[in-house]
Amino acid sequence: MSFRDKVIYQVYPKSFYDSDGDGIGDIRGVIEKIPYIASLGVDMVWFNPFYVSPQNDNGYDVADYYRVNPDMGTMADVEELIARLKEHGIEVMLDMVLNHVSTDHEWFQRALAGEKEYQDFFYLREGKADGSYPTNWESKFGGPAWENFGDTDLFYLHLYDRTQADLNWHNPRVRQELYKVVNFWLDKGVRGLRFDVLNVIGKAEFLEDAAPGVVDKSLYTDTPRVHTWIQEMHRETFGRCDYKVTVGEMSSTTIENSIGYTNPENNELDMVFSFHHLKVDYLDGQKWTKTDFDFPLLKHLLNDWAMGMQAGKGWNALFWNNHDQPRAINRFGDPVNFHAESATMLATVMHLQRGTPYIYQGEEIGMVDPSYENMSDYVDVEALNAYKELLAEGVNEANAFEIVASKARDNSRTPMQWSNAANAGFTSGDPWLRPTDFEQINVAAEEKNGKILPYYKQLIALRKAHPVIARGSYAPYELDHESVYAYVREHDGARLLVINNFYGEPTEFPLDEEFLHGRVVISNYPDPVLEENLQLQPYQSLAILI
After folding, report:
1. Phi and psi of 95, rounded to 5°?
2. Residue 23 near residue 429 (C-beta atoms within 8 A)
3. Of 144, 44, 160, nearest to 97 (Cα)?
4. Rg of the chain's alpha carbons, rounded to an integer?
5. Is residue 466 domain-resident?
């Protein structure tokens, strides 16, 4: 089965299910829930990092790529997980965090101890003559991107948290060590690889200042050498496997570069995550703001990426939600008045698109952002830093909290809601992050008489039943409609029209005559009537096959 035919489910292990009552999800907890995962019909599970880590960035600060963090389990647990999932025809995808390591990692500690060989593993630079940092780059988590290197006169680069030291990919030894990591996990039976922030590995050897007052991501993003190094990694690692799926997380990327990353002729990756469509509720492009989403912009971004990647033989990873994003239903739907309708509409948009759909845990039961009341509920370093910066900019506490509450990564990291029991049935202990709103929204309720979970299962089954979904071309349909995003998929004579009302009011939508006699293969409202002026209900989605 090709990566084009698959549906991938994302598990954030720390928040999935806690088997031992310590308040933290673990590998044995995932094993216990394999029957649930299998019931969805998915083909692969992507697991966020469970390597040894001090957890300053929830596991993306890796201290040992070859061992499992003790609070998550053991290597034997992971081996059992891989084998048990495989019994259900489900493969495992792991996160490869190869741009940086934790400052607790042996490589960094040996560099600190003065070993020149390991100092060359990192971007160590002298400060400027005036005592300032080597460059004016900013960390993506706030503040300068440089930190003092022990008691030396040097600084080390960290594009993310100060405990995440960027690796120097110019050093062939670094690249070979990282390829060993990839091959180690492939040898364990892992067949999916998700590469974290991969398009920032290509920083120059000689680092330059950005223009004053400008955050110039082009200095370290999507540089030509990224393609060169991914091609090398392909040759040295996963390119040797017949059956694998690779996806790169590409921050601030372009369609042109993403075609390069995913065109099969280039021997790089199968697909990319891009994030432009999830920035349409950023005021003036700034994340830590609060504003309504720009629907015309959202539509045109989805369309441009679908058309552009198709034209260049590239491939998109399709998603609304992940561990770094607030819940999409809060951003683009109406969880209060049209909970099931807006959840299923958003699912339809992605699952019937050209690309490979990803489902983030809890999305399939309509989980929403938590109802937190103050900053003490949040634990993520990015959210805490953003709150401090907003206050420093003069934003009052109430508004700063409202902004952070709308954009925090912790919104999607709250525990999976299994039931209406204490702590959502996630743990018998004190959960690491407090769940809310689980009395009505939980797996047990959805399995009993829900509307969202069965709909997700139907979407997954449709992809397996109709090649037009997995293999078909994409074209927009009535792109300028004020409240609807629609598109047509086509393959071997089959045509599928997908219609999605993004608003909580009814609307009319023109239907070409050819579709009036088609078959509705899915709808989130019962018994839709096909007519020339189609009457769409709030957040209605349907797909018509001819």
Report:
1. -80, 130
2. yes
3. 160
4. 23
5. no
CB 321 within 8 A of CB 328: yes
Burial status of residue 529 (CB atoms within 10 A of its CB: 0-12, 13-18, 19 or more): exposed
pLDDT-based confidence at 288, cuts 50/70/90?
A: very high
pLDDT digits (tens, 9 = 90+) for 181-193: 999 999 999 999 9
Find the length of the chain.
546
Q: Which amino acid, 130?
A: D
Alpha helix stretches (DSSP H) within 368-526: 381-392, 397-407, 443-449, 452-465, 467-471, 513-516
Residue with structure tokens 């096959």? Answer: 545
pLDDT digits (tens, 9 = 90+) for 318-359: 999 999 999 999 999 999 999 999 999 999 999 999 999 999
Strands of 141-241, DSSP E: 146-148, 154-157, 164-166, 192-195
Q: Are residues 178 and 161 in the same domain?
A: no
Give the burial class of 505: count Cβ atoms within 10 A of its Cβ; 0-12 exposed, 13-18 middle, 19 or more buried.
exposed
Instruction: Give me the domain span that covers residue 308.
Output: 3-100+173-459
Q: Do residues 37 and 126 both lie within one domain?
A: no
**Annotated catalytic sites, by residue?**
196, 249
Q: With a threshold of 0.70, does the pTM exceed it?
A: yes
The answer on pLDDT for 501 being more than 90 is: yes
Rounded Cα gap, residues 78 and 65, in angstroms: 13
Write out the H or E segment, with its range, that includes residue 473.
strand 473-477
Distance between CA 107 and CA 113 in Å, rounded? 10
353 and 495 inside one domain: no
